[in-house]
From TrEMBL, chains A, B:
Residues 15-75 form the HTH tetR-type domain. InterPro entries: Homeodomain-like_sf, HTH-type_TetR-like_transc_reg, HTH_TetR, KstR2_TetR_C, Tet_transcr_reg_TetR-rel_C_sf. SUPFAM superfamilies: Homeodomain-like, Tetracyclin repressor-like, C-terminal domain. This is TetR/AcrR family transcriptional regulator. The keyword Ribonucleoprotein does not apply.
Amino acid sequence: MESSSATSGGSTRREATRQKLYEAAVTLIAEQGFSATTVDEIAERAGVAKGTVYYNFASKSVLFEELLRHGVGLLTASLREAAERTARDGGTKVDALDAMIRAGLVFIERYPAFTQLYVAELWRTNRAWQSTLMVVRQQAVAVVEDVLRAGVAGGEFSDEIDVPLTASALVGMVLVAALDWQSFQPERSLDDVHAALSRLLQGRVSGRSAG
Amino acid sequence: MESSSATSGGSTRREATRQKLYEAAVTLIAEQGFSATTVDEIAERAGVAKGTVYYNFASKSVLFEELLRHGVGLLTASLREAAERTARDGGTKVDALDAMIRAGLVFIERYPAFTQLYVAELWRTNRAWQSTLMVVRQQAVAVVEDVLRAGVAGGEFSDEIDVPLTASALVGMVLVAALDWQSFQPERSLDDVHAALSRLLQGRVSGRSAG
DNA sequence: GTTTTTGCACTGACCAGTCAGTTCAAATAC
DNA sequence: GTATTTGAACTGACTGGTCAGTGCAAAAAC
């Protein structure tokens, strides 16, 4: 007899509790930062006792590290999927980048708190989860780099572009534009924001209106 | 009788102490975050007594807020200067943006810790210095927006571009690329990084090498 | 003689992590 | 089907330590 509602691996109740803790932690840490967020707050928002946090995670930092891994996993999967879908549909590499921009925006719209938290921690040094963060960052940027490299190999992009730097710049463009969108003009539609970034990507900023 | 090394206004000795405290605080907070940085640490790194911190600043948060204002003041001055210099030399608005990108890179190369700290705090909510941060952010982005608007008015840029969003995206592009440069490939030259970003700005990513 | 800095002891709040005890659902016994 | 056992999951009061901010007398700088 199996348990009534099995998730993939791991006992159901425990998994549900961990999920609640992730959700509570991500918003609190995004708002206040890691150090300013107390374990008591996380427990309270998740609706569990403090002891439960320590039953499920070795420490506050471990909870945070697993949260990071979890979130970036979702993002890279989504980016990769966007790139592959475009390739299957016979699109160019610019189309792939454009699709990835959209996938990035969709992700940020869905998980704004996670994105905030990620940006806030990414360039810090001297932190316990530094190495976790490096690994996880590289996974995400690598997806963009791969598309750029394929584009250079296929002659679609200039072979003079600097792949890692251009990838960083593209990620930064989307990240900052999206966070500003969420923070300062949340009423705008995703399509709107996507259109503006597309234009920038395709160098259609200079030059008069298409009229 | 002028003091030997006058900064604008304020008694010299006091100003020197405050400067030491800014420098100590900025690196520590960039590395560890605001909450994880103690006043004792700041005092120790600055080489002054803890009491001196409180003689010069009302509280830890006030020290931080003034630090923010100070740093962003330097940045906006530098951006504005770059834009104006280009205008005087009869450059286009793209030239102005390019000069501002360079000014941004120079700033980040000179004050990497401040930049880190700024990014880490910018999209947080529920923090005491939230409003300070908003004001100060707007000052910096506004300089870029002004150039974009002037370019649209003069017909150099498409009137379909979204000025605030494009400004955000450009700032993000430079910010993230530069932070990655500093963190992960610090051996590269500023010119190198600038060239890569210039290329992206001018839409010279697509298309074969100029050979 | 006024301003600024020092050094250091002290307070009170806050917080990560612990642990002895409780809950409860499923398994086993009858 | 009812009673009993088991153990994973959870609880929340408690502890030991940390830290922002204070108070103040004496020294140093100007």
